[in-house]
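Hey all, quick one. A colleague (J.T.) asked me to put the '5'-O-(N-(L-prolyl)-sulfamoyl)adenosine job into the tracker so the inputs and the structure tokens live in one place instead of scattered across chat threads. No bug as far as I know, just bookkeeping. Sequence used:
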Amino acid sequence: MRMSRYFLPVLKETPAEAQIASHRLMLRAGMVRQAAAGIYSWMPLGYRVLKRIEDIVNQEQIRAGHIPLLMPTLQSASLWRESGRYDDYGEEMLRIKDRHGRDLLYGPTNEELITDIFRSHVNSYRDLPLTLYHVQWKFRDEIRPRYGVMRGREFLMKDGYNFDVDKASAIHSYNRHMVSYLRTYERMGLQAIPMRADTGPIGGDYSHEFLVLADTGESEVFFDNSILELNLDGREIDFDSEASCRAIVDEWTEPYSRTDETHDESLFETTVPEVRRRKSRAIEVGQIFYFGTKYSEPMGATVADSEGRRVPVHMGSHGIGVSRLVGAIIEASHDEKGIVWPEPVAPFPVGILNLSQRDSNAEAVCLSICRDLEAKGLEPLYDDREERAGAKFATMDLIGLPWRIVVGSRGLAKGAVELTRRIDGESETIAPEHAAERIAEIYAAY
Ligand code: P5A
């Protein structure tokens, strides 16, 4: 993509309304634009990152055996009256009346709608277990939307719902989600720690939140430092195996880690040696719940068990804050010059910077690197603007592409271009005809 033809509305000034780095950088890099309080348009660069994150989420859901579908954003109030949540949910729910005076709402979550789909089509324990999910916009009329996409009113969530014949099977679904979430966040270059959490309006009594440590996070968390040493590191996982999922869950839930709502100071002090006790701020990027028959019972979602008896299904729901993740990744990965995208979520894998725009040879080399990259399925962002070198470097640093290739007349005279890594500024000189291959090699690792 040629930058001269792209739509990248970067801001020169730091926007006054943005209080945290990710919000500031998203506005400055032209990734989002506020449409109303807590509601954002996703500009092309931001939209690319959102899609990258969504792709990883989808791939990992499918790997775990979960089935994608798409439910609407608007829901009928009648289903929520069946579960009793229409009145319980309170002012965070955006209630709408259609022209016939019927009550609708903009879904803040989908437990009722999915339970209705399930009860209409599934009858037997033989069709279980089943986990359906979608990635869809939600609306919660947050009293204080803030920090940009971190606490929006409209936000993108992956929400999945498991249906199981009994509690044991539903706990496996819960564990499978925990493992699959660990993989998902790790692939994005994030360390998200599962922590025992409160269940709030979703209900049930067993839940974990996934938290990314950050000083600007809205949650307060307490944990055993040793949990930071854990990682999956590309481990093979059999998601159908209860034992192997449970073993991973045990590994992550053995060290103390809780949000402030479930924190028990005396347990913390008696079970964790002082040197390992940590208290921190953190960003909640996901949450999983087991709530048994909370929705299936009042809504009559039953199946015939192996003896022909009708039993309410055991359920859980599992959410990932897809749009919030864009901000959370930036909070975890930026410097004074701008964003530093981890490769797997970068909007473009590499930027090409032409320092000799008027030199037709330099232009030809840049275009040839672009073509080579595109042939390998890697779309670069080519800064072909008539701009000073300083401005080109500043824009590249701000938008945070993990790699940049600098092309200029002087280097070309020696048959070389410069490849630089954004995170630490480390550079190597390579022949232009090898540039695409080198980038492909780097990305093959992700
Ligand atoms: C689980 C899926 C649920 O809603 N029902 C369906 C359950 N869980 S949750 O914890 O309330 O939300 C899941 C994740 O969504 C993100 N999130 C938000 N992101 C941006 N702005 C918001 N206002 C917002 N509220 C929730 C969080 O990452 C949360 O973990």
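Adding what we noticed when we looked at it: The domain at 21-336 is CATH 3.30.930.10 (BirA Bifunctional Protein; domain 2). The chain is about 35% helix and 25% strand.
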